[in-house]
Amino acid sequence: MKRWLNQHRYAFSVALRRLWSQPFSSLCNILVISLSLAVPIVVAAVLDTARPVAMQIPVSAEVTLYLDRSAPSGAASRLGNELREKHADDIETVEVIDRERALTELRQRPAWSEALAALPDNPLPDAIVITLRQHPEIATTSSRLSEQWRSIGTVDTVQVDSTWVQRLQSLLDFLSIGLWLLALGVAIVVLATVFNTVRLQALTQREEIAVARLVGATESFVRRPFLYLGALTALLSCGLATVAAWLALQPLNSVIDRLASSYGTQVSLQLPDSVSLLLSVLVITILGALSARWSVTRNTAF
Amino acid sequence: MIEFQHVFKSYGRGRNILADINFRIQPGEFVFVSGPSGAGKSTLLKLIGGLEPPSRGAILVNGHRSDRMPARARPYLRRAVGVILQDTHLLYDRNAIQNVLLPLAVAGHAPAQSQSRARAAMEKVGLSGKEDLNPVEMSGGEQQRLAIARAIVNRPSILIADEPTANLDEDSARRIMDVFKDFNRVGVTTLIASHDRSLMAAYANRTMRIDTGRFTDAPGVT
Predict the structure, then answer these.
(1) ipTM
(2) Which CATH number characterizes residue A115's domain?
(3) Structural domain of residue A142, as residue ranges?
(4) Residue A184 needs a FRET pair 20 to 30 A away by CA distance; which of A60, A149, A268, B134 works?
């Protein structure tokens, strides 16, 4: 056990020496990996922050039907009742606003009263405001019902309100999948960069490897410093990526803060929680070591 | 103890470098393997050191069939056999003592213990005080002695050397041979491949002559 620990201590010191012996090359590799890693960290931070915000925004998916001005009096009430009965599962409330009431309400607003006074008659149509029931597929439902209601003869225009939140939710779901694909791409970048670094190191250390084998080194002994090299490169890259992501979030936060203030809320982008970060660091470090092992096994068969 | 039983060695479908070699070397013997260039001396030593497998036949080193040894066990055989090749294979990216420390790191010795053992090995070969020199700053004889220090630092029971005095002047060659003789006196079985007749006359207890892959005179001749 003591010998095994001594061998690991030796391998670790050799890995550090090799990293240190080519500082520019090592730094370039670490920068490439860390910048690649910083991108999914920033995306994860945006998603982690945006998702609860989207959930908190009060959503009342409303569909407003404006009737044709030639529609007979009472048509709006009849249509409202008809729709409430037909789509009882999807509709929460139905409010009919006839054209006279709409005009009265509009006249109460100073900006509109003068303009409306100049008109010879009431230009407003009868309207039905329908609030849909909340459920996960509300965006699809509102879209489907709007299409149906557009084909009703007395309906002139259908306006769907508040679907942007559902669209945002869909966008966030899409981004989540994108994040996984991005993470996969970054994993490939880590694998390729570490593989190539170790390949070059193995080529420059050919003589040392040959001598080590001559004096009785096992293949594990030969591979071990390269495994540490791969793991250390990945670990240092993770550290640098976290710092880079944190720095990138600072200017984004000032912009988002202004946007959020206009909605009367406070939002700030945060790095993913420490458990997720540590888990990611662990996975990336293991990936680095595995890639190094693959590379050294392929490139030291002489 | 080293024993060869009907050992053949060839590369690919080429001719046999070694053909039907049979001999036994007892522990503590000091043996010269002589013969002209290309006779198969280096190949013979590589087979003993487990650096290459035989094409046919049985090789026993310290009682173990090295020809049947799985690849993962061969490194442990190499630790029991100190090998000094014709090209010293010293590492020029580190100083002399770091070259000697490598086999100790391979064996998993603690750094403090390794340092004292490496210094002792260098002292034995007459390189005391030259620990911090880069091998490139050393003479040919010193480099050869450094290679010997590296080969013996793990206290192997067998020491094999391929033309260790080639390209050295007479004085340096004799100093090298004295070093080998010193190790042999403390029980290390020593095999040296050489074609230097004057050295053989001065140091050999036993000479095995090999020519075009075959023993042309009986082993065990003193």
Answers:
(1) 0.85
(2) 3.30.70.3040
(3) 62-161
(4) A268
